[in-house]
Amino acid sequence: MNHIRNFCIIAHIDHGKSTLADRLLEYTKTIQVTEGQMLDNMDLERERGITIKSHAIQMEYMYNGENYILNLIDTPGHVDFSYEVSRSIAACEGALLVVDATQGVQAQTISNLYMAIDHNLEIIPVINKIDMPSAMPDEVEDEIIDLIGCERSDIIRASGKTGEGVEDILNAVVARIPHPQGDERAPLQALIFDSVFNSFRGIIAYFKIENGTIRKGDKVKFFNTGMEYVADEVGVLKMDMIPCGELSTGNVGYIISGIKDSKEVKVGDTITHVARPCEKAIEGFQEVKPMVFAGVYPIDPSEYENLRASLEKLQLNDASLTFSPESSIALGFGFRCGFLGLLHMEIVQERLDREFNMDVITTVPNVSYMCYDKQGGEKEVHNPSGLPEQTMIDHIEEPYIRASIITAADYIGPIMTLCLDKRGELIDQQYVSGNRVELHFMLPLGEIVIDFYDKLKSISKGYASFDYHIDCFRPSKLAKLDILLNGEPVDALSTLTHQDNAVVFGRRMCEKLKELIPRQQFDIAIQAAIGAKIVARETIKCVRKDVTAKCYGGDVSRKRKLLEKQKKGKKRMKQIGNVEVPQKAFLAVLKLD
Ligand SMILES: Nc1nc2c(ncn2[C@@H]2O[C@H](COP(=O)(O)OP(=O)(O)OP(=O)(O)O)[C@@H](O)[C@H]2O)c(=O)[nH]1
């Protein structure tokens, strides 16, 4: 245990986390480098891919003549995943805080740092990219000292490109980060911080042992699910999984135990022995509750079962994703998926496309509402079309978040305006350091879901870190806005919005849809309605598009080719009534000016 160090790297996006991690792996000969290898070399790229996906990797390092085991645990870097970041951080005793020498301290540097400090991690500040001509290491050093109050000599200057400083970093990991604590003789208590699905081996869970020892063949129990398994294989993670007979306190490893169902493995759960269980689970386990919901529908209806299988596999290393079947008059059969936030939703959509080759349509996201009816009943509503009749509703409550925004003082004005515009209330503001200010707001989550990040980023020139947690539900005057295409309501385009904004919102939706839906061979009326009342209308004029017109009537095969091409183009469209609607129209609400 004295010779183990568990650490992570935290950084603002693009400050060089992955490049530096690769250098550490090369220096410790965990991955092989051939001479003169460049970053863009295919092999290295491939290995990088593995290192990034492996989530935890073990290195061996000699320091003062003794061999140490260094476990590098990867952390995702975005606010939507703060739960997962905190799980990974909980498995470490120290963190490298990497700051780009050309950029200085940035928003995510601060929010990730705070999380590491909350978990009492030893922080090793590293200034990266010092090889660059535009590097300003002295200024960045001042900023870091300002931020964490360390000594100038604590800060390591490094370059992921040239490898400078890599040895200093490894030495500091051993010398400064405390070894893990724990009792080897106590009952087994291991924290699951990640899991993946492997098509040959089933589900693989990654854990860190807080107390006790785990051996191959042990009968183990997952504390929060209560499920029991035999540890068919345990081992450590290097470039491959390396099986071993036992792993003891402080170490990081993996377990394979024939688990097939993703629901049985929850990130944050505790593994213990069946025969001699620990008394309680490792603290901090909480079911994450998705707050943003959207419909996900296969473009090709016959892909429905494949979509279900893909979502199940995704759920494995993304414990926060939820889904349940739903159907839409407009889109057919699909799933209502729950996400932690909008970025999480985008990532799931991208992974469905890239890793599972699924073509899907995602509908307008909305938050989870509580609806109280006049009989005193209450119901959680994840979809505007799930709301009872207006006359039956007593009132609706929407989730509010407590948001913390850290920014430079220059941007306070525009950020205030943005938040007030989004129905926010300022709670307080305080100086953090230098001219950095922290603002706290109460904001309706529904307003954040739509285009808050992008606006915040642009008005603050990227220099605003944003973090939030759900605070409470509050009654709100919400109206359901329906969109009709040629008189047909399109359920997938319905949204809930604040009554005061509903008419303007309806008008903007109609205008945006007019831009996004291509002209067809007949006029299309786009209407916005609240209940039976039409509040806005736009018309898309017809066009007669004869794609074969330029073929002079002669060449039949050319004509056929053109028609086929046109048919392909239509695939990414969804037929609603007689109107063809492209995917981007379903997200029109996100693109309102
Ligand atoms: N010149 C120079 N470029 C670097 C250095 N470290 C990283 N880079 C470049 O900076 C860019 C970002 O590096 P990454 O390692 O992908 O950064 P990251 O923090 O892992 O980025 P994300 O994973 O997207 O958060 C890449 O183009 C790297 O080649 C360095 O020390 N010097």
TrEMBL record:
UniProt keyword annotations, A-Z: Cell membrane, Elongation factor, GTP-binding, Hydrolase, Membrane, Nucleotide-binding, Protein biosynthesis
Presence of the UniProt keyword Nucleotide-binding in the record: yes
UniProt enzyme class: hydrolase
Localization (cell): Cell membrane
Domain Tr-type G: 2-181
Signal peptide (from-to): none
Assigned EC number: 3.6.5.n1
Record Gene3D superfamilies: 3.30.70.240, Elongation factor 4, C-terminal domain, Elongation Factor G (Translational Gtpase), domain 3, P-loop containing nucleotide triphosphate hydrolases, Translation factors
GO molecular function per UniProt: hydrolase activity; translation elongation factor activity
Membrane topology designation: Peripheral membrane protein
One Pfam match: EFG_C
Amino acids binding GTP: 14-19, 128-131
Keyword Lyase annotated: no
Catalysed reaction equations from the record: GTP + H2O = GDP + phosphate + H(+)
Family per record: Belongs to the TRAFAC class translation factor GTPase superfamily. Classic translation factor GTPase family. LepA subfamily.
PANTHER family linked: TRANSLATION FACTOR GUF1 HOMOLOG, CHLOROPLASTIC, TRANSLATION FACTOR GUF1-RELATED
Biological function: Required for accurate and efficient protein synthesis under certain stress conditions. May act as a fidelity factor of the translation reaction, by catalyzing a one-codon backward translocation of tRNAs on improperly translocated ribosomes. Back-translocation proceeds from a post-translocation (POST) complex to a pre-translocation (PRE) complex, thus giving elongation factor G a second chance to translocate the tRNAs correctly. Binds to ribosomes in a GTP-dependent manner.
Protein name as annotated: Elongation factor 4
Organism for this UniProt entry: Xylanibacter muris
